[in-house]
Structure formats: C-alpha cells, structure tokens
Write a structure and sequence with these properties.
CATH class of the largest domain in chain B: Alpha Beta
CATH class of chain A: Mainly Alpha
Structural class of chain B: alpha+beta
CATH topology of chain A: MetI-like fold
Helix content of chain A: over 70%
Distance between the termini of chain A: 64 Å
Order of helices and strands of chain A: HHHHHHHHHHHHHH
Oligomer: heterodimer
Radius of gyration of chain A: 27 Å
Number of domains of chain A: 1
Number of domains of chain B: 2
Bound molecules: adenosine-5'-triphosphate, magnesium ion
Largest interface: A-B, 17 and 28 residues
Largest sheet of chain A: none
Strand content of chain B: 25-35%
CATH architecture of chain A: Orthogonal Bundle
CATH superfamily of chain A: MetI-like
Number of helices of chain B: 8
Number of strands of chain B: 20
CATH superfamily of the largest domain in chain B: P-loop containing nucleotide triphosphate hydrolases
Number of strands of chain A: 0
Structural class of chain A: mainly alpha
Strand content of chain A: under 5%
Strand order of the largest sheet of chain B: 6-7-8-3-9-10
Number of helices of chain A: 14
Radius of gyration of chain B: 24 Å
Order of helices and strands of chain B: EEEHEEEHHHEHEHEEHHEEEEEEEEEE
CATH architecture of the largest domain in chain B: 3-Layer(aba) Sandwich
Largest sheet of chain B: 6 strands, mixed
C-alpha cells in the first residue's frame, strides 16, 4: 500500500494518474526479445542440435542396428577421397553462381535504380521477383525444356541456321549454374537495390561534374558504396547454392553430383542420416572458414 | 577562366514551359546570382548549364566552345550541391583528389594541389578524416575545395548554403566570396535569399516563371526595377497606379505624382514603384510627391521602424524610417508622406 502511494506520488503530474509503477527494465527487455530468441531456438538451434547429435551416431536411430556414439562419420572425406572432388566441384559451382549473380544482379539493380522513376520502378521490381514466387521444381524443369536436344534453344537456333548442330547444354555444369543463377538472382538484385537506392543522386552528379564517366562512377562510387549489399547478397546465395541438390540433379544429370545431392542421398536413398548430418556440418565448417578468411581480407583491404 | 553564354534556351516538361527563351551572358570572373521564387526555373537553368539536362532549344557556350551536346563529364565544371554530396567512402583528401585523378593528375602533384585547395578553404590537416567526421559547414567547404581544385571553367552552386544555420551561413558567404575573388572563377549561384544575392553578387538575375525579367548589378536591379515583379520580389515596394497626364501621373484619387522615369504618352496606364525607405514624413522643405495616410500598424525592430499605412481611398502603403530621434508614431495617427520623383520608378506590370 505504502509503495503504491509512493509510486502514485512519483507519477503525479503525468497524464494518467492511475499509471502504476513501471515494470522493471529486464521484464520488458525479455518480453521484447522473447519472440526473436524463441523463434531462433525453434527454427534454428533445435533442428541444428538434433542434426549435430545425429552426426555422432553410428547408424540412423530408427533402424534395428544398435546405435553407438562415434566420430567415424567425420572421417568420410578421408575414407572416401572422391568426396573431396565433389566438395571442390560444389564450391566451384557456388563460386560461379555467386559471381554471375553478383555481376548480373548488381547491373540489374543499377538499371532499376537509375533508369526509372516512381511507379515503374516498383512494377519492375515485382517482375524481377516473380521467379522467386514460382515453384522451384517447375522453374528448373522448364529449363530442361529449353536446354534439351531439340528443345526451345535448339529450335530457335535451327530457325536461324537450319544446318547447325545441337547446342544443347543440358546435363552439363553450365546448365546447373544457369539454373542456379536464375533461381538465386533475385536475392542479389534485392540486396544491391536496397544498398543502391540509399545513394544520393547528388553524389553521382558530383562525380560526373568532376569528370567521371559511367564506368568510373560504377567502379569508384557505386560498387564501393553498395559493397554491403553485394556482400550480403553473396552470402545469401553462396550458402544455399553449395548445398543445393534439385538443380544439379535435374539439370546436371551425371555431372550433377554435388555435396548437396550426396547429402540428400544419405537422407533419402541410403538412409544414413548420421553420414548426411556429418557431411552437412563439415560443409558448414568449410563455408564458415571461407567467410572468415574473406571478411579478414576485406577488413584489411578497407583499412589499408 | 571563361565566360558562359546562354542563347535562346527553352525547356518544357510535358505541357509546362519551365524555361522560355533564356538568353544571357555570365561574364568572365563574375559572380552572378539567380534569384526567383520557387519553381521559377533556377535549378533547371543551372542544370542545363552543367549538362545534366538537355535544353529543348538553344545553345550553351563555355568560352568559345559550344557545349550544348557535350556531356557533363566533358564540360569542366565545378559544382556544389545543397546536400554537400561528398563521397562518404573516401577520405577528405581522396574526395578532393577525385577530379584531379580524372584529369590524370596523380601522386605528388595531386597531393600538392589537394593541400593547396584544403588550405584555401581553411581545412589544412583534415585530409585523413572521413566526411562523417566533419561538421556541416566543414563538409560544405570540402565540397568547395573539391569543386575548385580542378580549375573549372565555371563554378555552379545550387543553394549550397541553405542547409547551414544563420551564423555559419554568413561565415560561409564571406569565405565563398573571398575564394571566388582569389580564384577569379566565373560563378553562378542559385539562391532564395535576396540579401545573400545582393551582398555576394556582381550581377543579379531575377527569374519569374521561366524568364529572366531583369539582370544587372545589384544596385541597378534594386534601385531601377524594370517590372512590378522585380520590384516586389527583390525588397519591398509601394505601388501606385494611374494615368499619364502632361508628363506626370494622376492617381485615381486625383493626386498628381511626378517621376523621373520615362513615361508613356498621355492617357496611358502606368504603375509606379516606390521603395518604403525612400518615403519620409513630410516636413516644410519636402519633396514634390505627397500622400497622406493613416498608420494602421507599427512594427518596432530596433534600428528601423516599419509603418503600415492606408490612404483615405484604401491604398496600402509601407514606410521604413530610421529610428533616429527615438520618436515612434502611434497607430491611428494620420501623417503626410513625401518622396522624390527620382525614386518614383515606372514599372511594367
Ligand atoms: N523532372 C521534371 N519533370 C517535370 N517537371 C519538372 C522537372 N524538374 C522541374 N520541373 C518543374 O519545373 C519548374 C522549375 O523547377 P526548378 O527546380 O528549376 O525550380 P527552382 O526555381 O529551382 O525552384 P526552387 O527554388 O524551389 O528550387 C517547376 O515547376 C518544377 O515543377
Ligand atoms: Mg531549385
């Protein structure tokens, strides 16, 4: 009672005289953070921890074989050296896809920001994001229609040059990268767009008035200023691409064996979840190592 | 150092003419202000000279070169923006060196030029900072250094000081004028602020709805406005309208007013402009032009007293008087105003 009166006395003069003592700061902080951390726990940490647990088991815990704790799953790369080549191929696939996405996505974002105004810009943005909303499987299969022998691309070529051979690139790494670039490009366009729209027009005009032509403006102003967008786009693309399995399988055929497909096989075909889990974590470690090195180089580059 | 000529320039956006038949010359080494109300086309004219906008008609000459079809980067202009527009990812020195690099000046030579430019704007030793670490006034001075270091043919400024507070603004005006005088750059300066235009410029150009209604020295434009708009926009004016009668003007209330301006023939309608500070309270030896009016409002502003008055036939007038003898007239008093024919300017409507 006494406390209540004290609180009332303290809040006298505030708009609402019935206002109670404010909650302690930690209560509101916790309440505000709870959804975020709750979601992170549910969606990220729990599945990840389950998988981590799996990766130390000798067999999938749903079969009849007794399950033991073991580190042998992590020796896969030593026991089966062909995995190294597959891993390397996956990284290269990620590299090329990210590179093409970066070049195309950045230019598209520049065009979007600089060449249009107002409503048209938003309409174009929606069009660019459209492949994002189409079913991934449909998107990839439609590429097989285009790229296969006597597919759309071949027909188009034969209309121009009837005697030309087939230029089918289906079931090659090019086809895989093409399909991946198509699928992941919107990420890059979006992140670059967001970084580019914040650049004041006057900055570009100032550069032009000082004698800079468009390529100088691109290299000296736009790319450095939109670097955060490029980097976050690259991170957003590189990680899922090296783990992707749908595009390599459908568009790559025999050459489409990647870490993604190997891991998927462990879960769906071989029913060896522990191996799949351990390969996933190895891949994750490699990716994190790459980013750590990369960000170190970047930091030194900007500091110097 | 070169002059800039604008010949018959016109620009329309859709159905709206933004600039109509602009022809003028900005003399070598002169400081010209473009003054006009919002939407009168000041920025558009400046950006056409810079090369950001292509005029529908007309040509732009910088020196002896027709640059109408030369893109911005080839015009060798220095530009200053309201938002400073410094490159945030570069140091101050790199910002200033940007234009030099584009001209192939690098290394030691560039460093010397950058140092000299920073010294000119009194920012020596700030070269290693980033724009974020400077105040607004300092950033604008970096922008000025960046614009002048390339020795541009013309310096173009679009309200560069309007983001600064009053004191800083006045400081920057002095700096700008000093640097313009030292460098001798032909300068075109867009502003809303009449005082700024009058104090800084060799020439003032008054724009109204896409036309230059008058261009001349500040004193000429102020003392001899050509149009009612010019008289009203630059400073304050009292307007009297009447008909010409034997070389003088008869107002509708019958008063005859004399003017030294050239007047049209008998019977023509004319508008006369008289500056409020040119009128005074009539005494025995007063001027030939007189009107009596009742004081409706007194505005006491320290050194200057402003009176708002009304003639018996309802014409509003303003009078600015020096607060010399500390005598302030009361509201409701009727006084007699007088002024000289020399200060009675016939203006076009
Ligand atoms: N890109 C454009 N499209 C359509 N109309 C425009 C465009 N740019 C300017 N205008 C119009 O042209 C007219 C002149 O504009 P401008 O920016 O030159 O005026 P200003 O004198 O600089 O005005 P302020 O003092 O407000 O800066 C305005 O009516 C404006 O609406
Ligand atoms: Mg403007």
């Amino acid at each position: 009672m006494q406390n209540d009166q004290l609180a009332l006395a303290q809040t006298r003069g505030s708009v609402d005289p019935r206002v109670k003592r404010p909650l302690p700061a930690w209560v509101s902080t916790t309440a505000l953070l709870l959804p975020t951390y709750g979601w992170l726990t549910l969606a990220v940490f729990l599945p990840l921890l389950t998988m981590l647990a799996f990766s130390f088991m000798s067999a999938t815990p749903m079969g009849k074989t007794p399950v033991e704790f073991t580190l042998k799953q992590y020796r896969a790369f030593i026991d089966q050296p062909y995995l190294l080549r597959i891993g390397f191929n996956s990284l290269m696939m990620g590299f090329w896809t990210t590179l093409f996405c970066a070049i195309l996505g950045f230019l598209a974002a520049v065009a979007l920001v600089r060449a249009t105004v107002g409503k048209t810009r938003e309409a174009l943005l929606v069009l660019i994001l459209l492949p994002f909303w189409t079913n991934g499987l449909v998107r990839v299969f439609s590429w097989t229609m285009v790229l296969r022998e006597n597919g759309f691309l071949d027909n188009l070529l034969h209309m121009v040059a009837p005697d030309a051979g087939s230029i089918s690139i289906l079931y090659t790494r090019y086809a895989v990268v093409l399909g991946l670039v198509h699928g992941y490009l919107p990420y890059m366009i979006l992140t670059c767009y967001i970084a580019l729209v914040t650049i004041d027009d006057a900055i570009i005009e100032a550069a032009a008035s000082l004698g800079a032509r468009w390529w100088t403006i691109l290299y000296k102003i736009l790319i450095p200023m939109a670097a955060p967008g490029l980097i976050s786009g690259a991170v957003l693309i590189f990680i899922p691409v090296i783990g992707s399995f749908m595009e390599p399988r459908i568009l790559g055929g025999r050459v489409g064996v990647t870490m993604g497909t190997v891991i998927e096989d462990q879960f769906t075909q071989a029913f060896n979840w522990p191996l799949g889990a351990s390969l996933s974590f190895t891949l994750l470690a490699v990716v994190l190592a790459i980013f750590a090195t990369f960000s170190g180089i970047l930091r030194r580059g900007t500091a110097g | 150092m070169t002059n800039v000529k604008v010949k018959s320039v016109a620009k329309t956006y859709g159905p709206i003419p933004v600039l109509t038949d602009i022809s003028t010359e900005f003399e070598e080494g002169s400081f010209t202000s473009l003054l006009g109300p919002s939407g009168s086309g000041k920025t558009t004219l400046l950006r056409i000279i810079a090369g950001f906008i292509k005029p529908d008609e007309g040509i732009i000459m910088i020196g002896n070169n027709d640059v109408t079809n030369v893109p911005v980067w080839g015009r060798n202009i220095g530009m200053m923006f309201q938002s400073y527009a410094l490159f945030p990812h570069m140091t101050i020195a790199q910002n200033v060196a940007f234009g030099l690099e584009r001209r192939g000046i690098k290394g030691e030579a560039a460093r010397k030029e950058v140092d000299r430019a920073l010294e000119m704007v009194r920012l020596s030793g700030f070269g290693d900072r980033t724009p974020k670490q400077l105040s607004g006034g300092q950033q604008q001075r970096v922008a000025l250094a960046r614009a002048i270091v390339i020795k541009p043919s013309v310096l173009l400024l679009d309200e560069p000081l309007s983001a600064l507070d009053r004191r800083l603004r006045q400081e920057m005006q002095v700096e700008l004028l000093r640097i313009q005088r030292e460098s001798g750059l032909t300068t075109i300066f867009v502003t809303h602020d009449q005082e700024e235009a009058l104090t800084l410029s060799d020439k003032v150009a008054i724009l109204d709805r896409g036309r230059i209604v008058q261009i001349g020295e500040p004193e000429t434009v102020y003392e001899r406005p050509l149009t009612r708009f010019a008289a009203e926009f630059l400073g304050d004016s009292n307007f009297l309208s009447g008909k010409v009668e034997n070389g003088a003007v008869r107002l509708s209330n019958g008063t005859v007013v004399r003017s030294d301006s050239a007047l049209p023939g008998n019977g023509a309608d004319v508008t006369l402009a008289i500056r409020p500070e040119k009128m005074s309270l009539a005494t025995a030896d007063s001027q030939p032009n007189r009107l009596s009016a009742r004081i409706t409002t007194v505005i006491y502003a320290g050194p200057v007293l402003s009176y708002i008055l009304e003639t018996p036939d309802g014409l509003p007038l303003k009078l600015f008087a020096q607060n010399r003898d500390g005598r302030v007239l009361r509201e409701g008093e009727t006084v007699s105003l007088s002024w000289s024919p020399e200060h009675t300017i016939a203006v076009a409507n």
